Amino acid sequence: MKNFLNPAKIILIGALALLTSVNSFSQCKGFVKKQIPKLSPFIHNGQINSSVLLSGDHAELTLTFYSGQNYRILVTGQETLGNVYFVMRDASKTQIFSSKDQKSDFWDFTVESTQQLTIEVMVPDVDAPSGLVPSGCVSILVGFKQ
Amino acid sequence: MNSLQKLFVSGIAVFFLSPFFYSCGSNKENAETEGTDTTSMGKSGGMTKTTSKAQNIFYSIPSPIELAELIKKAGAKYNKDLLNPIENKSKYMTNTSKALNLGVYGADLSYTSVFDDNTQESILYLGCTRTLAEALGVGSAFDEKTVDRIQANTAKKDSLLNIISDSYMSTDELLKESQREGASALVVTGGFIEALYLGTQLAKTSKNGGDIINRIAEQKGTLDNVVGLLTAYEKDAAVAGVLADIKSLKVIYDQVKVSSASTSPSDVKTNPTTKVTTIGGKITYTVTPELVTKLTEKSAEIRNKIISGQN
Q1: Hey, which residues 63-102 in chain A have their CB within 8 Å of chain B?
Q2: Cys-Cys link to A77, which of A14, A138, B63, B130 (CB 3.0-4.6 A)?
Q3: Structure ipTM
Q4: CA-based nearest distance A35→chain B, Å
Q5: Distance between CA B302 and CA B194 in Å, rounded?
């Protein structure tokens, strides 16, 4: 126990953690910026929805989509997370789309009536042999055009 | 690896990663809904295992550009007298006021840009957003390069809107990067309130006021998202004050009636050529004239408080 609390070890672990964290943060920022051009010819709504997620995590975003507009939802995850996919649900939680069996990471759609839809992002649960749960950046981007 | 080991390893990983967790909004307050078994971030930043719950991480608000486009498409005309006067930019002393009015001027910039022939006003409002962005320490979102790009693309509306959207994104990003998510939420809120103010004022004088009013009624869900976004940062006194104002608007919006039914599979059709899916189904928003008057007055009250620098 005494050995475990060695100050030098604590500093070393802390420094390694900080480096890992900063690297992860920078990696996420750079990752999202690379995705934005994939929204073209749609105009990005200007908001960054991204996060470092772990294997098995699940995230949601609810947004209003207006009639008369065309939309593109783009959901991407870093390779370490495997096949990240997303499901779209209406206000009553009825599934209206899943990208699980699609080859594309974006979906173009329009709504006949303005409504709130929820984008559920799923990160597959992977049992890593190394014992470390994989983590990586996931971004949800929304573009629109008339 | 058994589940306990996995949870422990996950907990260590998240403990180290949590100070740099980078998201749009509400990881601090988990809105839980029925869903799947998932691993999620606890409020302390540690890992918690929840069963049959889903974590709602993000709150997103339509951009002021999109709202300005909707208002224009509904038949509104351009009226520069409705914009926040540019000379007001020197009134904003507190960071709260600067953040809110950065959103307001951003919405005004969007409004001037979606209508044709307003290049001069777009440049003026770009100057206001730049001044406030610099005052908040995120001036690089509206740097010289951005100004040059806007001046070079005034005739290309889509390019112009993309540049403004990029700047909006950079502001959002820079504020979050410096761990000022509350300020980011205030920018978004200021933009939303200004767009709502413009819409309600334009509806009063427009021949197509009914179409604009429909768009205003449709903001009910978006307002819920604004409340959720601000609630995530309500421990910040400045955010809490703004949240109280927004909740007073929500009390009125709660009276807007929405009728809808679940989407059936037959409502979802994909065009095999364009690959664009159309989600059908009829959803109606019912708002009485009295309610429109209340929404108009309340949005003007909140907006005028913001632009007078009282926050």
Answers
A1: 63-64, 66, 68-70, 90-94, 96-97
A2: A138
A3: 0.79
A4: 13
A5: 9
Predicted local confidence at residue A134, as pLDDT: 86
B209-216's contacts with Cβ under 8 Å and 24+ in sequence apart are: B211/B74, B211/B75, B212/B71, B212/B74, B212/B75, B212/B76, B213/B287, B213/B292, B214/B74, B214/B285, B215/A66, B215/B70, B215/B71, B215/B74, B216/B287, B216/B292, B216/B295
- B73 forms bridges with which residues in the sheet? none
Query: Given a cut of 90, is residue B57 above it in pLDDT?
Result: no
3-state DSSP of B208-243: CHHHHHHHHHCCHHHHHHHHHHHHCCCCCHHHHHHH
Domain map (residue ranges) of chain A: 7-145
| Angle, helices B181-205/B289-307, rounded to nearest 10 degrees | 130
Q: What is the pLDDT of residues B249-270, one digit of tens each?
A: 999 999 999 987 777 877 899 9
A27 shares contact with chain B (CB less than 8 Å): no
Query: What is the Rg, in whole angstroms, of the alpha carbon atoms belonging to chain A?
Result: 19
Burial of A38 (0-12, 13-18, 19+ CB in 10 A): middle
What's the CATH code, domain A7-145? 2.60.120.380
Inter-chain touch A64–B62, beta carbons under 8 Å = yes
Contacts of A73 in chain B (CB under 8 A): none
Asked if B65 lies within 8 A of A46 by C-beta distance, the reply is yes
Contacting B residues, span 184-223, partner chain A, CB-CB under 8 Å: 188, 215, 218-219, 221-222
Do B169 and A114 count as a contact with CB atoms less than 8 A apart?
no
Query: B59 in contact with A at a CB cutoff of 8 Å?
Result: yes
**Which two structure tokens, joined as six digits, stand for B19?**
């100070």
Amino acid letter, A7: P
Contacting residues of A for B20, CB less than 8 Å apart: 21-22, 24-25, 52
